[in-house]
Amino acid sequence: MEDGEADSSPAPEKKGAEEEDDFGYQLFPDRNKKPQSFLVRSLFTFHNRCQVMLRMTLETNPYAQLLLEAMKQSGCTVFNDRHFSCENCDGCVSGGFDAATSQIVLCQNNIRQQSHMNRVVTHELIHAFDHCRAHVDWFKNVKHLACSEIRAANLSGDCTLMNEIARFKFGLKGHHQTCVRDRAIRSILAVRKVSRETAEKAVDEVFDACFNDLEPFGRIPHTKADARRAYRDFQNRDRYNANL
After folding, report:
1. Average pLDDT per run of 10 along the chain, which is 244 residues long?
2. Exposure b/e, 115-129, CB count within 10 A at least 16 = b
């Protein structure tokens, strides 16, 4: 999890106040409020900007386009007005996946650049894709959460060279894996009341299997060019399977 612009791990199911604290729901205060009217929301620049950037991401970003297509083919079609919500959040997060509603929360007060929106949407769509294709126990099995966080950090562009340089983190051999591991641990600690030792143990135990699970990309998309190639390969794979 990255200070000031982090992509959080999945948000929890709404139950009691104590459980919400345990699962990090306090990071998303608008989840507990009644929806505002369109007229009220339209008065807030943050909300308008968030909606515009989201639309741009969904229409032009190859990472998001591939994930949306993969989810549709898995029987989990994503609808913009149903499955995305621009809301105000705690200052340390940029987004989250609410498994209780299958909805991606985008933190309109913390996402200020299109590149950041692209990364957050991709990160949370990976959680949504995992939720669609597998029986993920987000709330009771920290290994399940760790696996999805590893995949999200690995495949979303969180750990690209340019992003790491912007964080003043440099490395050569194995640095990508180090970044993925660190960010997965940070995300777990942000939304679960577990010790660092527990988070590290969960990440380490599933790291190899989850790091090498590259679905639906088929490769680690280090750049947009990689993501575009992955998207083309995914579309061609589907055409090939349709002809069998």
Report:
1. 46 44 62 59 72 95 95 91 90 87 92 94 96 90 96 92 71 83 94 93 98 95 91 78 50
2. ebbbbbbbbbbbbbb
- Name the catalytic one among 20, 124, 149, 200: 124
Structure tokens at 109: 């007060």
Residue ranges of the domains in the chain? 22-135, 137-215
* Burial (Cβ within 10 Å: 0-12, 13-18, ≥19) of residue 37: exposed
Looking at the domain that runs over 22-135, which CATH code has it been given? Answer: 3.30.2010
**Whole-angstrom distance, CA of residue 227 vs CA of residue 223:** 6
Q: Per-residue pLDDT tens for 93-114?
A: 899 999 888 999 999 999 999 9
- Largest Cα–Cα distance in the chain? 53
The answer to whether 49 and 108 are in contact (CB under 8 A) is yes
Place of tokens 């007060």: 109
- The DSSP element (H or E) to which 93 belongs, if any, is strand 93-98
- State the alpha helices, DSSP H only, in 74-212: 80-83, 114-133, 142-155, 161-166, 175-191, 196-211
pLDDT attached to residue 1: 37
Is 124 a catalytic site residue?
yes
Q: How many CA atoms are closer than 13 Å to the CA of 226, on its beta-carbon side?
A: 12
The answer for residues whose C-beta is within 8 angstroms of residue 162's C-beta and 6 or more apart is none
pTM of the prediction? 0.81
Q: Residue count of the chain, please give it.
A: 244
Token pair, residue 192, equals 């679960």
**DSSP H or E segment with residue 85:** strand 84-87
Question: In degrees, to the nearest 5, what angle opens at C-alpha 47 toward C-alphas 8 and 151?
Answer: 25
